[in-house]
Amino acid sequence: MIEESDFETFLYISKNEYQIFVYDKNNSKNLYNEEIKVNEEIQFDSLPKFLDENIYKIEKTVSNFIRNIILIIDSEKILSTNISIKKKNYEKNINQKYLENNLIEVKDIFRENYKDQIIMHMIIVNNDLNQNIFSTNNADINDDNTYLEVNFISISDRFTFIFDKLLEDHQIKIRQYMSGIYIKSFFDENSAELSVVANKLNNGLNQNEVVLISKNTENKGFFEKFFQLFS
């Protein structure tokens, strides 16, 4: 039996393709990978059958139940929004805690204005206002002001509702939402597998991304873990 902590299960959904794969984190390879071509816009009629056929096979392969899944969505319904703040700098020493507080403030602004959106990715945008910047080259500081711009990639909770319900039929929770377009933007000639790049992104491949970690299954909200911002 493979321990649940040793693998991640991904479900990729687009209007032309469904793909489900299990990624072995210890050996950096797929334990299971199945895909089908489809031609569906909204109803996703073929998805229940695709899940029925593959969830059982996956659980047999890993000798364990699939309790949660990472859903990768490739759709024009994904929203990309930039929010920035500029504020008076009263801090003599700008540290990681100060940046975290500013990121939380920007996140709260997004949530206040986009209440129906689920955050998929939260990325600090590069700004070159001056040379006195954080070691990440993404938050600009001068003697008087701090400036921070963040890109939010999100999806409507109305759109994801159908996937929540379908996976609940298999007693599976969606642990995380990711954008297929965003993941593919990190493809190169040596790394062109969704599972590999998605796993790397969740482990800090883009040091400008604030990694979103799901809360326990009793609460579907998100909280932020800030890391690698000053590496």
Question: How would you describe this structure in keywords?
Answer:
11 strands; disordered C terminus; 26% helix; alpha+beta; 231 residues; 5 helices
What can you tell me about this protein's structure?
The protein is α+β, with helices and mostly antiparallel strands and 231 residues long. The chain has a domain at 4-75 and 156-190: Nucleotidyltransferase, domain 5. Helices cover 26% and strands 34% of the residues. The chain is built from 5 helices and 11 strands; from the N terminus they run βββαββαβββαβααββ. Strands 5, 6, 7, 8, 10 and 11 form a 6-stranded antiparallel beta sheet that branches. The longest helix is centred in the middle third of the chain and has 18 residues, at 96-113. It is globular. The two termini are 36 Å apart.
Explain briefly what this protein structure is.
With 231 residues, the protein is an alpha+beta fold. It contains five helices and eleven strands, in the order E-E-E-H-E-E-H-E-E-E-H-E-H-H-E-E.
Helices and strands in order:
Elements: E1 7-13, E2 17-24, E3 29-37, H1 47-62, E4 68-73, E5 79-88, H2 96-113, E6 117-124, E7 140-141, E8 145-156, H3 157-168, E9 173-179, H4 180-184, H5 194-202, E10 209-214, E11 222-225
Parallel strand pairs: 1-4, 4-9
Antiparallel strand pairs: 1-2, 2-3, 5-8, 6-8, 6-10, 7-8, 10-11
| Large-scale geometry | globular
Number of helices: 5
User: According to CATH, what is the topology of the domain at 4-75 and 156-190?
Assistant: Nucleotidyltransferase, domain 5
Could you give the order of the helices and strands? EEEHEEHEEEHEHHEE
Strand content: 25-35%
Q: Radius of gyration in whole Å, from Cα?
A: 19 Å
CATH class designation of the domain at 4-75 and 156-190: Alpha Beta
CATH architecture of the domain at 4-75 and 156-190: 2-Layer Sandwich
Q: Let me know the average pLDDT.
A: 80
Estimate the helix proportion, in percent. 25-40%
Write the CATH homologous superfamily of the domain at 4-75 and 156-190: ATPase, nucleotide binding domain
**Largest β-sheet summary:** 6 strands, antiparallel
- Class by alpha and beta content: alpha+beta
Per DSSP E runs of 2 or more residues, the count of β-strands stands at: 11
Low-confidence segments: 127-138, 215-231
Oligomer: single chain
Span of the ends, CA to CA: 36 Å
